[in-house]
Task: structure prediction
Amino acid sequence: MKFSQFRMMVEAKGLTARECRPDHWQIIGGRNLVNVWPHTRRGFRMQQAGSKSTGGNVEEAIRLAGTPLEEPVQRESAPHSNVPAPWEPVRGDIVCSRPARVGLIRWLWRLLW
Result:
């Protein structure tokens, strides 16, 4: 099976197909995220998010994904998400500055990133 065939079957049900890699596809837009591996030693494999992988076919994978959601699910942001990181520039009335001295590990991470 090619990804184009997979995508047509998934989109016919109102869901979205995503090609993560040539050997790993996803069905998104439904009640559940479903990972699909079409060409394994054991054949077509699928996995609903949070469960074990099982064998099956595309129709079963679409059934696992569930019905399409009317509106995308919005994750609640963490209560501290509006607080900027110390290295971010001035934003609004909040002034952030880099600490003058940091530990060796943080210094190395800054150097790498």
Summary: The first helix runs from residue 3 to 12. The two ends are 40 Å apart (CA to CA).
